[in-house]
């Protein structure tokens, strides 16, 4: 285990590892720091190639020194969308992870660390996928979990979460308002607050997406990454992870341009990016079909904006209409079923190509973060009476 300490992402103040942490004293996310020289000794292209292909193989750059709480976190494939975008448009399909979303990466790590730190009860607000993953890994670890969802959370997530034995509540507010209640309970000692970026380890699980990308692309990062941005854990995590990979000598200094994708009905990062602000104001009356990115206020706002700007990327908003069209187009043209948040990312790529931000031939990775089968789709079938049916008319 190469963790040296934790560090406030705003002030740089140091915190000791080895005990539970939420936000820093400045109220900002904590980042895990490693002895990268020590990691370099054993984390090599050759050693990695010989390891089981799952997120735990990056152990020199992960915080746990205990057995992982695992449900089989596979390396997710990169799939080319030839008809949609040509040979260089790739999707990293995170929908194949346990619980059908990439929240599994973060929660596998967070629950592993919680168990190591002897935490027994955890809670979080969620728009769906994170709650399901917390409940599943919590069940695996024998922990009690409490999950509070906004009313528009997809029913399938609510039902799945309850199936794992979590206490699930559907509330009459947005995710940040649910989060305030979770925070209150944590302050009263009822549970540990596992909200996005309010504990330091979900980010460490999610950064592995960036590690996998580097290895899968022959240790050369793509020209651009399009990421559906709610709390931004994955985007911030990958950006941190790329520096770690460079420090241990696995990649060079090339970085992708990072595109943070949001829905027009909830686009606080896009507004802040356009205004040149360091922090993002809360987005009121948030509404979009892409519930995973319906996050009106993100505690890591400045980290998202920083990564986007440092990388020469952008924050892009797309309409629900463009999202749903992108989902249908990719399914029909390339046989790939995006979740709505993944549809947002494809719609944003199209918009970026249209505006000349991204070249059509550039190597681009889109993130599809949940399994498309979880979400309602329009029914385009026709009714058939078998007694009257003529096959040649079908
Ligand atoms: C949570 C979620 C997102 C947003 O992820 P963040 O890293 O929190 O920004 C995107 N898509 C899906 C399907 C999600 O569940």
Q: Name the average pLDDT.
A: 97
Low-confidence stretches: none
Query: For this structure, what is the CATH class of the largest domain?
Result: Alpha Beta
H-E order: EEEHHEHEHEHEHEHEHHEHEHHEHHE
- Major sheet strand order: 4-5-13-10-11-12
Rg calc? 21 Å
Describe the structure.
The protein has 14 helices and 13 strands. With 394 residues, the chain is of the alpha/beta class. The protein has three domains: 3-59; 78-96 and 207-373, Rossmann fold, CATH 3.40.50.1100; 103-193, 3-Layer(aba) Sandwich (Rossmann fold). The strands form three sheets. A six-stranded mixed β-sheet has the order 4-5-13-10-11-12, with helices on both faces. Helix 4 (103-116) runs parallel beside helix 5. The longest helix has 15 residues, at 233-247. The chain is globular, with a radius of gyration of 21 Å. The protein starts with a strand and ends in a 26-residue tail after the last strand. The protein binds pyridoxal-5'-phosphate. The site of pyridoxal-5'-phosphate (PLP) has 18 residues, from helix 5 and helix 10.
